[in-house]
Amino acid sequence: MKANNYLVYLIALPLFSAALLLLLGRIADKWGHLLATLVSASTFAIGAYEFFAMRSRSGVDRAITQHVIQWISVGTLKVDGALLLDQLSICFVLLITGVGTLIHIYSISYMEHDENRRRFFAYLNLFIAAMLLLVLADSYLSLYVGWEGVGLASYLLIGFWNQRPAYATAAKKAFVANRVGDVGLSLAIIIAFTQFGTVSFAGVKAGAPHASSAALTAIGAMLLLAAAGKSAQFPLQSWLGDAMAGPTPVSALIHAATMVTAGVYLITRSNFIFDASSTARLLVVIVGAITLLFGAIIGTAKDDIKKALAASTMSQIGYMILATGLGPIGYAFAILHLLTHGFFKAGMFLGAGSVMHGMDDEVNMRRYGGLAKFMPITAITFGFGYLAILGIPPFAGFYSKDKIIETAFNAGGNKGWILGGAALLGAAITAFYMTRVVVLTFIGAKRWDSMAHPHESPLLMWLPMAILAIGSVTSGFLLSSGSALVHWLQPIVNAGNVEGGKELMKPLTVSLLALGVVVIGAGAAIIKYRTVASEAPSNISIFTKAARKDLYQDSFNEAVLMRPGQGLTDTLVKTDHNLIDGAVRGVGWTLNTISSAARSIQNGYVRSYALIMVLGTLALVATVWLVTL
C-alpha cells in the first residue's frame, strides 16, 4: 500500500540534527545534547503514530511504502529510493527510537563533564538515522547504505575517546571485522541482481521460487556472513568485547539493543531465501548454536563487567540466530527475544555504567562487592534484567528464550536433541555467569579501596534504567500473550506455519527443564563466588585461561587470517616491485643507457660531426653497392 506519511522524517530529523551539531561546533555545546534528545523523542513519537495507524488498518493493507527519490537507473539496474514500513520494520523502529531516547536521557548526565558531549550526541543521532534507514529500506541496496552508516557511526562512537590508543585500536578492530561481513552483503546483492534482475525485497521474494538451489544457497550464505559480522557471530565475533571501550551508553544502544541485532533483522527480512534453501538454514543454526555457547563460556571468566555483558550479548544474539534457522515460527520467536533482550540488556548495560559512575570508572568486578547497599536503585533495576535474562517467570526472558529452546527441540530427530541440548546448556551457563556478575558486584563484602566512594546515580541516569526494568518484567508477557507477536509477524514470515508440530516438546516440560538448569547454574556461581579475592588468582585452569582469552579467537584470526594475509600481501608487493615495476624500470634503464651513449656523440666539435658525416656517407654507399650486386 502506498501512502502519504511521515516515514522520511524518521530518518531526516536525526540525520539533520547530527549534521547541525557537527557543523555548528562549539556554538552548540550548551544545548546540543538537548536538541539531540528532543529529536530522538520526536522520532519515537512518529514511530508510535505509525504503529497505531498500522493497527487501525486491515492486515493486507498494513504495509506502506513511501517513494522518496528516483535513485539509480543504469541499464537494467533500477533502484528507487523508497521506504517500507511493515509489521517487521515497525518493531525495530519502536525499539531503536524508544530505547534510543532513554539512552539519550541517560547520556545527558553520564556525559555531563565530557567537553565533547555535543559531538557524542551528534554521533548518537547519526547512528539512529542510519539504523532507521537500514530497517526501513525497501531493497537490499538501500539497506546496504544504512548498513554502512551504522558501521561508520559505531566506529566513531567506539573510538570516541580515541586519545587512548587501546580505544582507537578497538574502534579499528570493529570496523575491519564488520568490513569482512560487508563483503558478504555486497556479494549477496550482486548474485541477487544477476539472478533476479532486481535488488528489491519484493522482486527477490517473487523470483526466489524459480531460482536454482545453488544460487539461493550462495545468497543465503553471503547474507549469513554479513549477519555474522554485524551481529558478532562465529567466526566474526572477536570485535564485540573490545568494542566496550566506548562510553557505556554506546554499549547499551549499539551493542545490546540495536546494531548487533541487525543481522537477525537481515535474516528475518530475507526469510524467503532461507526457507527456499535448506543448506543455508542449516548454516544459520550451526552458527547460532556455536555462538550461543561460545559467548556464554567467555562470559564465565570476564572480570570486566562490560565485557561480561558483551559476551552475554554475543550469546543471546546466538539464540536469535539459531531461532531464525528453525523455520517460519522461529523467525517470530527470534524477534520476540530480540525485543525483550533490548529491554533487559540495555538496562543492564546502563546499570553497569551506573556502577562505574559510582566507582570512579572502575570496571573490575573483583573490586566491587556489596554495592547494593550503596546503590539500591541500580541494584534493583539490574536485578530485574538479571532475572529476565535467566528466564525466571514472569520476567521477559521466560517468554522468549524458552520458546527458542522449545522450537530447537522441535527440529526433530538427532538435530532436535543437539540444538535443544545446546540451547539448554547455554541457559545453564548463562545462569552461572550472570549470577557471577550479580554476586561479585552487588552482594557480599566490599572489596574496594578507601579511595572509592560508591553512590547512587542521579535521576537522569536511574530513571531510564527504571523504565527499562519495567520492560524487563512486562515486555515478554505483552508480546507473547495470545501469540500476539506471532500473529503480528505472520504476513511477513508465515509464522503460522509451525513445522514439526507432532514432535513439539510440551512448553511446561521445556520451562521445567530450563528452570532446573538455571537453578543449577546460579547455585554453582553462588557457591563459587560468595567469597572472592580482589585480585584474580594466578593459578587458573587451562579452561579458564582460554575463556579469559576469548577462546583464543584473536590468536586464531592472527594465525589463520592475518599472518597468511600479510604473507600473501608481502609476496604480491615483492612481485609487483620486482616483476611488474622491474620490467618498467628495465625499459627506462635501457633507454637511458642508449641515450647516454648517443649523447656522447653530441660533443660540439666540428671534427666529430665531420667524421660522422663521412662515416654516414660511406655506410650509405656500402648499402647501395650491396643492394645493386
SSE diagram, text form:
Blueprint (H helix, E strand, L loop, with lengths): L6 H18 L7 H24 L8 E11 L2 E9 L1 H24 L6 H20 L3 H19 L6 H32 L4 H7 L5 H18 L8 H4 L5 H10 L4 H8 L1 H5 L2 H22 L5 H20 L3 H31 L17 H15 L5 H14 L3 H30 L16 H22 L3 H10 L13 H23 L12 H7 L4 H47 L6 H23 L1
Helix pairs in contact: 1-2, 1-4, 2-3, 2-4, 3-4, 3-10, 3-15, 3-19, 4-5, 5-6, 6-8, 8-11, 8-13, 10-15, 11-14, 13-14, 13-18, 14-15, 14-17, 14-18, 15-16, 15-17, 15-19, 15-20, 16-17, 16-18, 16-19, 17-18, 17-19, 17-21, 18-21
General description of the model:
The protein has 629 residues and is mainly alpha-helical. Among the domains are: 277-541, no CATH class; 558-628, no CATH class. The chain has helices spanning 7-24, 32-55, 87-110, 117-136, 140-158, 165-196, 201-207, 213-230, 239-242, 248-257, 262-269, 271-275, 278-299, 305-324, 328-358, 376-390, 396-409, 413-442, 459-480, 484-493, 507-529, 542-548, 553-599, 606-628, and strands at 64-74, 77-85. A two-stranded antiparallel ribbon has the order 1-2. A hairpin with a 2-residue loop joins strand 1 and strand 2. The N and C termini lie far apart (94 Å). The model is unreliable at 498-502 (pLDDT under 50).
